[in-house]
Amino acid sequence: MSSSAEVSGRAGPPGHSVARPAGPALEVVDLSKRFGRVRALASASIAFTPGAVTALIGPNSAGKTTLLKSIVGLVRPDDGCVLMNGTVVDAGGAYRRDVGYMPQLPAFPPHMTGQELVDMIDDLRGFDGEPDESLIDDLEVRDEMSKPFGSLSGGTRQKVNAALAFRYRPTVLILDEPTAGLDPVASLTLKRKIRERREEGATVLITSHDLGSLESLAEEIVFLLEGRLRFHASLVRLLEETGQRSLEAAIAELMLRGRGAGDEIRPKRATTPDVSVGDDTARDDPGLANEEGVA
């Protein structure tokens, strides 16, 4: 990837730009992890661009879930490290204040109400700032916050999950299948919120099997295959390199090629240019709880 990050800018008007903060807020360096004989990650190094949405894509068992859990501190890598705003993720819990994590399957205590979860996570994070509660109202779950989490429907649990991830105005957002289980109106509402945080300079990392949603949100693409980083560049560059017109077709092309390690595009620590924008952690932290497994 060149020193000037490429972005699609397709969602925003020409010339509409926002200055990115200097240096990556999130970076993984030579990250490796094995589970027994299974290699989940192999020396992955990625500097995620601030003020951009990056889609993490790969087939099953590519290493996506292991990478996400390593970033939020739920998995300890065998080698390498994760840096969050310059802080090593496993060096205490200071990095957690910078992270908003939306797991695919939140493991919140089912007997606790949404408001009790808010109070507990506020306390665990030592949060005393002004929270962002806009999603509670925009997703229409204010009345549901007084009900036990386990009694809520799957879609409503996902809305509460989203509201908690965005509550702390984090500089880094990790979103695992964020629109899964949401109706079309709620999905559009969440996408607008993601774009809003991106415009405010947040680093947003999303993984999803819904490639249509990713294409509408992401400027940059990270493609993993068999635990290795095989591609990291802009969506525009991916489409150009593969000769395809959609993200789905381009990813299928990468998988069919079986791109070798010699062909991978390795990211560099970039200077942070202006970029077009759209219009539109540890195991004992319930706010960073998620299911186990290699994916």
Structure description:
The protein is an alpha/beta fold and 295 residues long. The chain has one domain (17-277): 3-Layer(aba) Sandwich (Rossmann fold), CATH 3.40.50.300. It contains eight helices and twelve strands. It has helices at 64-72, 114-125, 134-138, 154-166, 184-199, 211-217, 235-242, 247-257, and strands spanning 17-19, 26-35, 38-48, 53-57, 79-84, 87-88, 99-102, 172-176, 203-207, 220-225, 228-234, 274-276. The strands form three sheets. Strands 7-8-9-4-10-11 form a six-stranded mixed beta sheet, sandwiched between helices. α7 (235-242) crosses α8. It is globular. Mean pLDDT is 81; it is low at 1-21, 259-263 and 265-295.
List the helices and strands and how they pair.
Elements lengths: L16 E3 L6 E10 L2 E11 L4 E5 L6 H9 L6 E6 L2 E2 L10 E4 L11 H12 L8 H5 L15 H13 L5 E5 L7 H16 L3 E5 L3 H7 L2 E6 L2 E7 H8 L4 H11 L16 E3 L19
Parallel strand pairs: 4-9, 4-10, 7-8, 8-9
Antiparallel strand pairs: 1-12, 2-3, 2-5, 5-6, 10-11
Helix pairs in contact: 7-8
Give the CATH architecture. Answer: 3-Layer(aba) Sandwich
Q: Please, how many domains?
A: 1
Strands of the largest sheet, in order across it? 7-8-9-4-10-11
- Catalogue the unreliable spans: 1-21, 259-263, 265-295
In the CATH hierarchy, what is the superfamily? P-loop containing nucleotide triphosphate hydrolases
In one word, what is the shape?
A: globular
Distance between the termini: 26 Å
Strand content: 15-25%
Strand runs, count: 12
Using only CA atoms, what is the Rg? 18 Å
Which sequence of SSEs, written as H and E, runs from N to C? Answer: EEEEHEEEHHHEHEHEEHHE
What characterizes the major β-sheet? 6 strands, mixed
Question: SS-based structural class?
Answer: alpha/beta
Number of helices: 8
